[in-house]
Amino acid sequence: MNKFDAQEFSDRVLNLISTKFSLSKIKNNFTELMEAVFVLSEAEVTLHITDEELAQMDCKEGCSTCCKVNVSILDFEAIIISDFLLKTLTNSELETLKIKMKLLVRDIQSLDEDERIMSNKPCAFLNKKGGCSIYPVRPLLCRSVTSADKQACKDAMTMIALGEEISIPMHARQKQIMDVTFKAVAKSMENQGLSSKSMELTKSVLTHL
């Protein structure tokens, strides 16, 4: 198992974005930049997860227990998600989704983390089968979440209403890698004179549709 050097990896993300930023700015499209960031971070994860650990993960398509929490994203992430939606949805599908998103923003905008979970309002990007419709471009925060016990996830969500916490067995290294990536992207945006302020997923994506 390779040792993970958080500072070295952060520097690689920073260098990657610095190299690609100028061309992305000229194109006024940061989708390719974020695609490269996603590839880099996912490749790093594969270096630190064994086949045995991967087999233990209980996250499967259609399991959306955790998809009712507040997810914060950076503007670069909102851009790649909105671009994906504009390319993959018909006009009718997009308009239907936008209505769904606006209703969700209205319902959750004043809720804190625990209140959002207790409201049981699912992510606007879940499809009818409970799968993630934006999976190829899902946020870094979503990529950081893994679980080796889906029942523990359900129990944890339930116990929040009682003011109690239940630990969920997860791959800590994957979370660390995605957290480092998020911070490096934010730092890169600051370096380029852009706002690194994060925003709730649904509201942020709406601003680009």
Topology:
Elements: H1 6-27, H2 31-46, H3 51-56, E1 72-73, H4 75-88, H5 91-108, H6 113-119, H7 140-144, H8 150-160, H9 172-191, E2 199-200, H10 201-206
Antiparallel strand pairs: 1-2
Helix pairs in contact: 1-2, 1-9, 2-4, 2-9
Assembly type of the chains comes to: single chain
Strand order of the largest sheet: 1-2
Helix and strand run: HHHEHHHHHHEH
Structural class by helix and strand composition = mainly alpha
Unreliable stretches? none
For the secondary structure, the number of strands is 2
Annotation field: number of helices: 10
Mean of all residue-level pLDDT scores? 89
The radius of gyration is 17 Å
Separation, N- and C-terminal Cα atoms: 42 Å
Largest beta-sheet characterization: 2 strands, antiparallel
Strand content: under 5%
Shape: globular
- Tell me the helix content: 55-70%
Tell me the number of structural domains.
1
Characteristics:
209 residues, 60% helix, single chain, mainly alpha, 10 helices
Short description:
By secondary structure, the protein is mainly alpha-helical. Helix content is 60%, strand content 2%.
Q: Care to describe what's here?
A:
- The protein is mainly alpha-helical and 209 residues long.
- The protein has one domain (6-206).
- 60% of the residues lie in helices and 2% in strands.
- α1 (6-27) packs antiparallel against α2.
- The longest helix has 22 residues, at 6-27.
